[in-house]
């Protein structure tokens, strides 16, 4: 006959926790999970108007709450996973030249696949785009002459929103491409306006002539799929793409101007406070170690893409991009069928707290 499962002994919730509002209860639990100092937590609660006795009791009793104990158990499993990532990262970093983004020419298909795709390493290919007509043709004047009468969706007002990339849909504004060209030329260095991949203009037949300006593809790419997997970027010096990771691999060719790319290994994701989708709140150009202390252990790689350079961005690598000059660039994900490029991520939706 089946055995009757042993029921756990009842464990009542400590009294002080019942007196907290749900927001305060969550705040205490989250800060204890971050291992914040109890005395500092009590001071914060008192300064916010909580009675000193209640604050002290609630912080002290949280560690005995049954729900919190369950959270601590799951946290142990998460920390094991974090330690696995950290140990693998330490092995990666022992490789000669790890901290330098290689600049290569003449990379074969087999080496591209083995060393950079399977090896998950970023690399700059210096010889892929040397024959592209785009390098000789693309300019603000060329865009205005060929496509200025066409509408494009651009992001405007980015300087007014610290989360401009997450809120890109609300910053979308439609205008003639000629008007945007004038805005870029007359507005100087700024992050306030940018024509990004989100416009998807290269999916429209009227912009197909731009694809005729693309020449030889990198190893692993299928040229026949380019029209389904290409994106165009155009903006002034000063445009920024905040720290994030993509959900697939890509190539990115710089056509005019220069862009600085900064990278962080996907194995260091636990150090980047990734609480919302694929974004990190950290600015690698102005790191706040007081607010984000785990950032001190992050290794940042950096490279500057010159016109004609093609970057391979491997899966999951965090990156932050800044245009050093007025810039046009072209990204593409038209990998051949034998190089799978679809991956699933379970992204957090916590938001920044």
What key phrases describe this protein's structure?
JmjC_dom, alpha+beta, 13 strands, Cupin_8, 6-stranded mixed sheet, 353 residues
Can you tell me about this structure?
The structure is a single chain. The chain is α+β, with helices and mostly antiparallel strands and 353 residues long. The chain has 2 domains: 15-81; 94-332, Cupin (Jelly Rolls, Sandwich), CATH 2.60.120. 28% of the residues lie in helices and 18% in strands. It has 9 helices and 13 strands. It has helices at residues 15-18, 22-33, 38-47, 52-62, 66-93, 109-118, 133-137, 140-147, 177-187, and strands at 102-104, 123-125, 151-156, 172-176, 193-194, 230-235, 240-244, 250-256, 259-264, 300-305, 310-313, 318-323, 327-332. A 6-stranded mixed sheet has the order 1-2-11-8-13-6, with no helix packed on it. The protein has a 4-stranded antiparallel sheet with strand order 7-12-9-10, with no helix packed on it. Strands 4-3-5 form a 3-stranded antiparallel sheet, covered by helices on one side. β1 (102-104), α6 (109-118) and β2 (123-125) form a beta-alpha-beta unit. α3 packs antiparallel against α4 and α8 (140-147) runs antiparallel to α9 (177-187). The longest helix is centred in the N-terminal third of the chain and has 28 residues, at 66-93. The radius of gyration is 25 Å and the shape is globular. Residues 193-353 form the JmjC domain. This is JmjC domain-containing protein. InterPro entries: Cupin_8, JmjC_dom.
Shape: globular
pLDDT < 50 stretches = none
Proportion of strand residues:
15-25%
Tell me which CATH architecture of the largest domain applies here.
Sandwich
Q: Termini, distance in Å?
A: 51 Å
Structural class, by secondary structure, is alpha+beta
Main sheet: strands, sense, barrel? 6 strands, mixed
Mean of residue pLDDT values:
93
Series of secondary-structure elements, N-terminal to C-terminal: HHHHHEHEHHEEHEEEEEEEEE
Helix content: 25-40%
Integer count of domains: 2
CATH homologous superfamily heading of the largest domain? Cupin
- Write down the Rg: 25 Å
The top level CATH class name of the largest domain:
Mainly Beta
Number of helices: 9
Number of strands: 13
Here the CATH topology of the largest domain equals Jelly Rolls
- Give me the side-by-side strand order of the main sheet: 1-2-11-8-13-6
Pfam family, one: Cupin_8
Domain JmjC: 193-353
InterPro entries: Cupin_8 (IPR041667), JmjC_dom (IPR003347)
Protein name: JmjC domain-containing protein
């Amino acid at each position: 006959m089946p055995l009757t499962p042993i029921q756990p002994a009842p464990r009542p919730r400590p009294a002080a926790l019942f007196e907290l509002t749900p927001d305060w209860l969550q705040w205490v639990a989250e800060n204890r999970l971050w291992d914040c100092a109890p005395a500092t937590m009590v001071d914060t609660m008192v300064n916010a108007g909580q009675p000193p006795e209640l604050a002290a009791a609630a912080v002290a009793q949280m560690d005995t709450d049954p729900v919190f104990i369950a959270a601590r158990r799951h946290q142990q499993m998460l920390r094991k996973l974090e330690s696995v990532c950290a140990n693998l990262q330490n092995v990666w970093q022992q490789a000669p030249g790890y901290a330098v983004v290689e600049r290569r020419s003449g990379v074969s298909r087999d080496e591209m696949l083995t060393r950079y795709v399977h090896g998950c390493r970023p690399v700059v290919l210096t010889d892929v785009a040397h024959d592209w007509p785009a390098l000789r043709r693309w300019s603000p004047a060329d865009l205005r002459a060929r496509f200025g009468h066409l509408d494009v969706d651009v992001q405007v007002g980015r300087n007014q929103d610290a989360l401009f990339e997450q809120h890109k849909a609300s910053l979308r504004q439609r205008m003639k491409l000629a008007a945007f060209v004038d805005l870029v030329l007359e507005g100087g260095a700024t992050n306030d306006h940018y024509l990004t991949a989100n416009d998807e203009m290269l999916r429209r037949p009227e912009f197909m002539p731009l694809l005729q300006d693309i020449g030889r593809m990198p190893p692993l790419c299928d040229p026949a799929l380019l029209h389904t997997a290409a994106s165009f970027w155009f903006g002034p010096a000063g445009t920024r793409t905040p720290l994030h990771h993509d959900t697939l691999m890509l190539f990115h060719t710089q056509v005019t101007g220069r862009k600085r790319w900064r990278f962080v290994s996907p194995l260091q994701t636990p150090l980047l406070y990734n609480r919302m989708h694929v974004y990190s709140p950290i600015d690698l150009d102005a790191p706040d170690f007081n607010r984000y202390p785990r950032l001190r252990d992050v290794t940042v790689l950096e490279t500057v893409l010159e016109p004609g350079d093609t970057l391979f961005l491997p899966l999951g690598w965090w990156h932050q991009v800044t245009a050093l000059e007025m810039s046009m660039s072209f990204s593409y994900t038209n990998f051949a069928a034998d190089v799978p490029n679809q991956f699933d991520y379970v992204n957090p939706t916590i938001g920044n707290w």
